Structures are given as C-alpha cells and as structure tokens.
C-alpha cells in the first residue's frame, strides 16, 4: 500500500529535484522516494552493532604495525591503522 501526502519545498530545491528526476528519466515522486530509501538504509547501517573478535594473543599486545599495501597512500594507511587500533580497543573492552 502506498500513502500519499503533500510536500512543500523552497523554489531552488523544487527546481533541483525536478531537474534531477528529469535527467534520470524518473518521476519526482520516484526520485524523492529513492533518495529517502537510500538515506534510510544509510541510517540503518550506521546504527548496526559491530561484534569484534580477535585472537587473545593479538589483544595482549598494545602495539601492532599493519603491513602497508604497495599502492597505499599515507592518508589511507593512517586511516586503516586507526581503524585497526579502534577495533582492537573495542575487542579488549569485551
């Protein structure tokens, strides 16, 4: 079942939505619904709980150096290292 309701947009938002829907060969309703469904999935994913499991030996050591990928830039390596440390800290906390 589909529900209907009226939405009011500022003029520049309405023009943007109409232009984007037209460019994608979609109705405004379909375009807006697709955006809302995408945002709904993003929010649901951000609220999922993550379970981290790690070998006990891995958790006993405070310092871990990741092997750097050959094509990995400094920022990518730093972000991956930070994520790895955060995951291990989370696993240590139980």
Describe this structure in words.
With 94 residues, the protein is mainly alpha-helical. The chain folds into two domains: 11-46; 56-93. The chain is built from four helices and no strands. It has helices at 11-23, 28-46, 56-60, 74-93. Helix 1 (11-23) packs across helix 2 (28-46). The chain starts with 10 loop residues before the first helix and ends with a helix. 0% of the residues are buried. The mean pLDDT is 87.
Q: Which helices and strands, and how do they pair?
A:
Blueprint: H1 11-23, H2 28-46, H3 56-60, H4 74-93
Helix pairs in contact: 1-2
Concise structural overview:
Helices cover 61% and strands 0% of the residues.
List keywords for this structure.
94 residues, mainly alpha, 2 domains, 4 helices, elongated
Give the mean pLDDT.
Answer: 87
What's the number of domains? Answer: 2
Counting helices, strands and paired strands, the structural category is mainly alpha
Q: What radius of gyration results from the CA coordinates?
A: 22 Å
Q: Give the overall form.
A: elongated
Distance between the termini: 44 Å
Q: Mind describing the biggest β-sheet? A: none
Number of helices: 4
Query: What is the N-to-C order of secondary-structure elements (H for helix, E for strand)?
Result: HHHH
């Amino acid at each position: 079942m589909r529900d209907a309701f009226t939405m009011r947009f500022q003029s520049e938002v309405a023009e943007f939505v109409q232009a984007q829907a037209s460019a994608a060969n979609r109705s405004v309703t379909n375009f807006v619904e697709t955006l809302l469904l995408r945002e709904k999935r993003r929010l649901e994913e951000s609220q999922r709980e993550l379970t981290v499991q790690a070998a006990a030996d891995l958790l006993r050591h405070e310092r871990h150096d990741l092997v750097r990928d050959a094509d990995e830039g400094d920022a990518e390596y730093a972000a991956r290292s930070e994520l790895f440390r955060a995951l291990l800290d989370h696993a240590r906390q139980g």
